Amino acid sequence: MTRIERVFLIALAVAAITLVAAVVNENGIRAITGFASSGTATTSVNLLEISSIKTTGSIDFGSGRVDANASNATLDSDAGTVTGGSWTPITQYITVENDGTVNISVNVSADGNNNANGLIGGTNPLFQIKGVATEPDSCTTLQAGYTNVPNSTETPLALCDLLRYWNSADEFNISSKLSIPNDAAPGQRNVTLTFSASKA
Hints:
Layout: H1 3-21, E1 22-25, E2 28-32, E3 53-56, E4 72-76, E5 81-83, E6 94-98, E7 104-110, H2 116-119, E8 126-133, E9 147-148, E10 157-163, E11 171-181, E12 193-199
Antiparallel strand pairs: 1-2, 3-6, 4-5, 4-11, 6-11, 7-10, 7-12, 8-9, 8-11
């Protein structure tokens, strides 16, 4: 192919590209045609998986004594009753809330040796807690009957096997029941409950 032929072919190619690229009218180039374009973009978000609980409130039965003619006194913070003793009845709760981002199971135990014998002492004491529902569907299975509280060396008590994380179903209350024998030693009693959360 001669040099002239190559120049001619190049000129033809340029002319063809120009025809595809533009529509020309009397005012000049009206619109560019023959080329397609597109683009992409992304938006990202990462939702963290967090197992966490928050507790608020406390239960304080105050001061009192077992009645002289009673073998024990029973104090119930859910029913708000006292039988066989001089304590003032109270209705108080501890609130357990799932403030994480996943469904959780909740267990509880008392610090040190503070089961019923360690906390209260005497003959046949009781230290029990139970779950009290406050929001519909907050727990698939809630320990809704009074059950003995284990100490730190015993198997934790399962309170709730599925506490949800959305606001309308993420909490429940805890109430306490004590049975104080008439032979329990006098003195102040305090116990710390430790609640643990694990992904359900």
